[in-house]
Amino acid sequence: MSVRISPVGSRAILAILTVSLLMTCASATAQERVIYSFDLDGKDGYQPAASVISDAAGNLYGTTYYGGSTGYGTVFELTPKAGGGWTEKVLHSFNDNGKDGYAPLGSLIFDGVGNLYGTTEFGGVYASGTVYELTPKADGKWMEKVLHSFNGKDGYAPFAGLTFDGSGNLYGTTYSGGAYGWGTVFELTPKAGGGWMEKVLRSFNINGNGGSFPQAGLVLDAAGNLFGAASDIVFELTAKAGGGWTEKVLHTFKSKYGTFPDAKPIFDSTGNLYGTTYGGGAYGDGTVFELMPQAGGGWTEKTLHSFNGKDGNDCFAGLIFGAGGNPFGATKQGGAYDRGTVFELTPKAGGGWTEKILHTFSDNGKDGVYPDGGVISDAQGNLYGTTSYGGAHNGGTVFEIAP
Predict the structure, then answer these.
(1) pLDDT of residue 208
(2) Residues paired with residue 171 on neighbouring β-strands, in sequence order
(3) What pLDDT is attached to residue 60?
(4) 164 pLDDT exceeds 70?
(5) I need a labelling partner for 227 at 20 to 30 A (CA). Which of 11, 209, 317, 385 fits?
(6) Is the separation of the CB atoms in 383 and 374 below 8 Å?
(7) Cα(228)–Cα(225) distance, rounded to whole angstroms?
(8) Gyration radius of the chain over CA positions
(9) 68 — phi, psi (to 5°)?
(10) C-beta separation of 107 from 118 below 8 A
């Protein structure tokens, strides 16, 4: 069983971040710069464990697992300044009583009118995690509302971010809980008179072949089917005509082909699925894979890249297709200093893929350490992401990589 290294109890990792001011950043094939460093004093949050998202104006939004006014985590916004640099604003600090949730670990998403949605790993009415909404107000502040508090039986510890369908329903996963204690897939449906109704679509069972402990978010295809990953499988959930959902395992990973697909998969324009594994592969350090649907049914898996430690390992985050159409991603560890890397895969003319390291996080930690949440891309090809540690104050960073 793979267990993602949660920030809970991980402050001891800071002990290895001994800053060597005589060291310089590792050379890289792209320009990396820290656009914001979080401070361990916690007022603006610290330890961002998920990547950021962007609005149409180029503002960035994200979460920190710790910090804020009470130390229980924040939602923040970074706004670019006209003369250069960025301004950070805390949109919400989670309450120290935990009722509105605490420890946000997954990425945020927007709805069509600019509201933000996310999950907290813990807290809520039953201390089992929440789904929340943040709504901007006329005075510039944001109002937080808990849409659902998990109670254990319907799931516990929602690690990952959420997904909207075309009707405004929210979908996500919980790491544990449910009917068998091994995690769930859930749906939140808005009610006509207000509020939301939660329904468990799938309770994972360790005794079956349907996976367990889902740490990844979900993706929808054009037909409304849900795709995700749990333990060593990639699965599909299809809605049945009379109600309920049917699960189909698309691929079961073996060590040679990767183990622990802990990140949300993504589709390309032709319906192939791409994703990453935390372990396994040719060198045991994880893989990038592709799943291709077959005309007669079933899916074929192909390993596009096996990490070897020097180019990264522990790939918890999923992939994106950047401005040029190539897959980009980040590894939490590995690289020249074992602080993590950002990479790009490019298809070769005769078949196969070439990996290029865009940035190796340096030994001194000033450029960030441990990019746990992956990256996003803007229209110009700039990449943005977060690191859980490092930066000017060792509280983590938001970084930019320019092509």
Answers:
(1) 62
(2) 163, 187
(3) 98
(4) yes
(5) 385
(6) no
(7) 10
(8) 20
(9) 90, -170
(10) yes
Alpha carbon distances (Å) from 98 to 149, 156, 172, 271, 374: 11, 15, 21, 41, 27
Q: From 14, 17, 39, 30, select the one nearest 392 (Cα to Cα).
A: 39
For residue 29, count other CB atoms closer than 10 A to its CB: 12
Listed residue (132, 38, 121) closest to 78, CA to CA: 38
Q: How far is CA 196 from CA 1, 113, 144, 186, 193, in A?
A: 33, 18, 15, 12, 9
Q: What is the pLDDT of residue 30?
A: 76
Reduce the secondary structure of the chain to three states and give it as a string.
CCCCCCCCCHHHHHHHCCCCCCCCCCCCCCEEEEEEEEECCCCCCECCCCCCEECCCCCEEEEECEECCCCECEEEEEEECCCCCEEEEEEEECCCCCCCCECCCCCCEECCCCCEEEEECECCCCCCCEEEEEEECCCCCEEEEEEEECCECCEECCCCCCEECCCCCEEEEECEECCCCECEEEEEEECCCCCEEEEEEEECCCCCCCCCCCCCCCEECCCCCEEEEECCEEEEEEECCCCCEEEEEEEECCHHHCECCCCCCEECCCCCEEEEECEECCCCECEEEEEEECCCCCEEEEEEEECCECCEECCCCCCEECCCCCEEEEECECCCCCCCEEEEEEECCCCCEEEEEEEECCCCCCCCECCCCCEEECCCCCEEEEECECCCCEEEEEEEEEC
What is the C-alpha to C-alpha distance for residues 64 and 94, in angstroms, rounded to an integer? 10
* Alpha carbon distances (Å) from 97 to 122, 123, 220, 335: 11, 8, 35, 40
Is the pLDDT at 11 greater than 80? The verdict is: no
Show Cβ contacts of residue 255 under 8 Å, excluding neighbours closer than 6 positions. Answer: 279, 280, 284
Burial class, 341, CB count within 10 angstroms (exposed 0-12 / middle 13-18 / buried 19+): buried
Residue 64 identity: T
Both structure tokens of 24: 């310089």
**Which amino acid, 371?**
P
> What per-residue confidence (pLDDT) applies to 146?
98
CB 212 within 8 A of CB 1: yes
Instruction: Give the type of residue at 318.
Output: G
pLDDT for 24 beyond 60: no
The span from the CA of 366 to the CA of 17, in Å, is 10
